[in-house]
Each structure stands twice: as structure tokens, then as C-alpha cells.
């Protein structure tokens, strides 16, 4: 039988144990710092006026009022009663809308990585964080909107087949 080589343990010097714990704590804190730095950018949504009901999903269209500002406070975009698809906007804007409720007003901070990133857009410089004031007026699913559009088209076709809209004056004959 072969014998396993034994290495005698040396006694730990007085005060060395606390140095080992300090070193372990420093490594743990460094690990937390690296993990924090590697965290993906996040959108921050602050509720100014609470909304009601469910929140929109990526399958919905929203109707909003909004104002977008740069870090220096300059307004770069503003509009009222704008319909938008959640899939047709910058990722941070879509993420923020999915945290809102109809009737609510919000302030949204979008980091550049979830906005226009290192490319920029128009007067928005590369790597610029954006702030939006958003009022979510209402939202509907794309399926609901498509159904409403089909109904409107059917109504218009029926009116055309009947010779125009009810109550509409007839064209004068010559």
C-alpha cells in the first residue's frame, strides 16, 4: 500500500486570520462591483399620475401625449394624441410604455443604450440619455384596431352601394 504524502499544517500567525477575512471581503466586494457594471441598462419610470387597468403589451398600439428632452433640458420632440405601435419605437420607450396604465402620466429616463446608442439620431448626439414626459391616453390590441378598420371599410362599401352616405345631397343633374 502506498502512503499519501502528508503536509503538516503550519499554525496561523496571530492577526493573520483577520487579514484573510479582509481579503475575502475585498474580493467579494470586487465581484459585486463587476456584476453591477455588467448589469444591463434599465429604464426608470416615475409615476406622476396613477393610471388604471392593465398595461399595454408589445402586441398593442398606444395613444399618447409626449415630450422628449435632452440632458440639458432642450426639447427634441413633442406631440399630442399620437398613435404608436410598441414595436415601432426605441427599446427603452417600448419598455416604459409596458409599465404604464391608461390615464397615467409618467416621467421616463432612458439610458442611451436603450435609445439611439452610439449612433445618435438627428439632433440627438451619440450616447445621449433621454427623458420623456408621457401621458398614456389609451391603448388597444392590433387585432381590435384591425377589426375596427374592417368594420369601417364594410360600412363605407355599403354606403357606396346605396349611392352615397345617408342624408347626403344628390349631385345635380344637367
TrEMBL record:
EC annotation from Swiss-Prot or TrEMBL: 5.2.1.8
The reaction(s) this protein catalyses: [protein]-peptidylproline (omega=180) = [protein]-peptidylproline (omega=0)
Residue ranges annotated for the PPIase FKBP-type domain, each copy included: 59-140
Keyword match Transmembrane helix: yes
UniProt cross-references to InterPro entries, sorted A to Z: PPIase_dom_sf (IPR046357), PPIase_FKBP_dom (IPR001179)
Enzyme class: isomerase
Keywords for the protein's UniProt record, in alphabetical order: Isomerase, Membrane, Rotamase, Transmembrane, Transmembrane helix
Annotated protein name in UniProt: Peptidyl-prolyl cis-trans isomerase
Amino acid at each position: 500500500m502506498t502512503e499519501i504524502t502528508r503536509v503538516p499544517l503550519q499554525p496561523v500567525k496571530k492577526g493573520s486570520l483577520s487579514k484573510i477575512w479582509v481579503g475575502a471581503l475585498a474580493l467579494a466586494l470586487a465581484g459585486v462591483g463587476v456584476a453591477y457594471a455588467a448589469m444591463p441598462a434599465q429604464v426608470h419610470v416615475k409615476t406622476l399620475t396613477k393610471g388604471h387597468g392593465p398595461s399595454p403589451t408589445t402586441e398593442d398600439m398606444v395613444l399618447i401625449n409626449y415630450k422628449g428632452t435632452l440632458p440639458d433640458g432642450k426639447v427634441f420632440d413633442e406631440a399630442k394624441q399620437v398613435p404608436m405601435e410598441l414595436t415601432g419605437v426605441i427599446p427603452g420607450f417600448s419598455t416604459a410604455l409596458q409599465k404604464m396604465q391608461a390615464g397615467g402620466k409618467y416621467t421616463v429616463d432612458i439610458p442611451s443604450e436603450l435609445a439611439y446608442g452610439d449612433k445618435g439620431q438627428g439632433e440627438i448626439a451619440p450616447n445621449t440619455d433621454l427623458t420623456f414626459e408621457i401621458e398614456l391616453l389609451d391603448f388597444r390590441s392590433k387585432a381590435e384596431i384591425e377589426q375596427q378598420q374592417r368594420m369601417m371599410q364594410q360600412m363605407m362599401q355599403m354606403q357606396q352601394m346605396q349611392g352615397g352616405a345617408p342624408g347626403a345631397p344628390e349631385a345635380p343633374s344637367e
